[in-house]
Design a protein that fits this description.
The protein is an all-alpha fold. The chain folds into two domains: 1-189, MFS general substrate transporter like domains (Growth Hormone, Chain: A, Up-down Bundle), CATH 1.20.1250; 201-392, Growth Hormone, Chain: A, CATH 1.20.1250.20. It is built from 18 helices and no strands. The protein has helices spanning 2-21, 27-42, 47-51, 53-76, 78-98, 102-128, 135-164, 171-187, 203-207, 213-244, 248-251, 253-275, 278-298, 302-316, 319-330, 335-344, 348-363, 367-386. It is globular, with a radius of gyration of 20 Å.
């Protein structure tokens, strides 16, 4: 009994770190507010292009810092690496309060991107230090569930800050306080770390894996699924504001619906994937997601738009782990290198929103954003039906 209590006391502060990991999904709300608050007079013709640079600034950091973080983690340890990410997160959260300008917003989210990259690379391995054997998989799933709750709650925290504190930007110091609590809790939790065996992956060894056609296609799949995920999050509020006349605060519940159903999809997906082949499940989900995105181009009713967000969130929820698993199973001898490469693929969250901004500004409508998201989903459709069963 005592041993179980000790184990739980070590697991909980690590799992709480996944809540901090979910802070990156506040980019959707921030992008909508920055467009409304700062870009109307600043650049009327390119409001979406510029506001979508917020997620670009954040997710670009995954391309730059994923592999170096793995090297750093081997030198200073997993726990210290997580604590470093928390420190950078706290700094990033106070920047918009010091000076709320477009430039400072970009700097803040670039720092948050660096912090989130470091956290995503180091937190899962840290969990391995406190959970062993069969319990590891369930603990990792619990961590992703905590992250999903964080993403889901962001619009509600922003609404609370706007209505009760008279400024939506107070979501940032609230996040800073939560991160500080996570830091202190983890700092005073003794976690033994094993010595690192072997050498860390280099840029060269990771990029060399892309010569494998299957891995290359899966890597593009990761780019697209993260791009679709971030793209829907980024466009959700703007679509509701444009088509339904909602305020930025009320429109912020659009991403919440998306994340709520993505959380439900991830939870139920664990049961479905135990009964169905991952490739078959992939095909069914992506077909429904593509149809929902096509419908989103035309639907203007508020209830209809919310319903489509729920469908997309539910069907896209398990695509990332399915593609990740397919990639690992195709070359189990290169599992470490492939893992690093897939994390680098989170950079897709910068690529698709950038083109969404260009397209929506060109068309003068958020329909442009939906078309770009649909293009990413269509690649996933191609991948789902071209993937060989042996990689599943």
């Amino acid at each position: 009994m005592t041993e179980n209590k000790v184990q739980v006391s070590k697991i909980l502060p690590v799992l709480f770190g996944f809540f901090v990991m979910g802070f990156c999904d506040v980019v959707g709300i921030t992008s909508a507010h920055v467009k409304e608050d700062l870009l109307g007079a600043y650049s009327p013709e390119f409001q979406d292009t510029l506001s979508n640079l917020i997620p670009v600034a954040l997710f670009s950091m995954f391309l730059i810092f994923s592999i170096p973080t793995g090297i750093l983690m081997n030198r200073i340890g997993r726990k210290k690496t997580v604590l470093l990410s928390n420190g950078i997160t706290i700094v990033a959260m106070f920047i918009p309060l010091v000076e709320y300008t477009f430039t400072m917003s970009l700097i803040a989210f670039a720092l948050l991107g660096i912090a989130n990259t470091i956290l995503q690379v180091s937190l899962n391995p840290l969990l391995q230090n406190v959970v062993r054997g069969d319990r590891l998989t369930s603990s990792l799933t619990a961590g992703q569930f905590v992250k999903a709750i964080s993403s889901f709650s962001a619009p509600f925290i922003a609404a609370f800050a706007a209505t009760q504190l008279d400024n939506w930007q107070y979501i940032f110091p609230i996040y800073a306080v939560i991160t500080l609590l996570s830091t202190v809790w983890l700092m005073f939790t003794p976690i033994a770390e094993e010595s690192v065996e072997g050498k860390a992956s280099s840029f060269g060894s990771v990029l060399a894996i892309l010569k494998d056609k299957t891995i290359f296609l899966m890597f593009l799949g990761i780019l697209c699924v993260v791009g679709v995920d971030v793209g829907v999050n980024t466009a959700a509020s703007k679509i509701l504001m444009e088509r339904c006349g909602l305020s930025s605060i009320d429109a912020g519940y659009g991403p919440s619906v998306y994340f709520a159903f993505r959380t439900l999809g991830a939870f139920l997906g664990a049961f479905f994937l135990a009964k169905f082949a991952s490739t078959k499940f992939f095909k069914i989900n992506i077909v429904v997601a593509v149809l929902a995105l096509i419908a989103l181009i035309f639907v203007g009713d508020k209830i209809g738009v919310f319903a489509i967000y729920g469908i997309i969130g539910f069907t896209i929820a398990n695509v990332f782990p399915i593609i990740f698993g397919m990639a690992i199973q195709s070359r189990p001898d290169k599992a470490n290198e492939i893992s690093g490469l897939m994390i680098t693929g989170v950079f897709g969250g910068a690529v698709i929103p950038f083109f969404m901004g260009l397209m929506s500004d060109s068309l003068g409508s958020q329909v442009g954003s939906v078309i770009v998201i649909l293009m990413g989903a269509l690649y996933l459709f191609y991948l789902a039906f071209s993937a060989k069963e042996k990689t599943a």
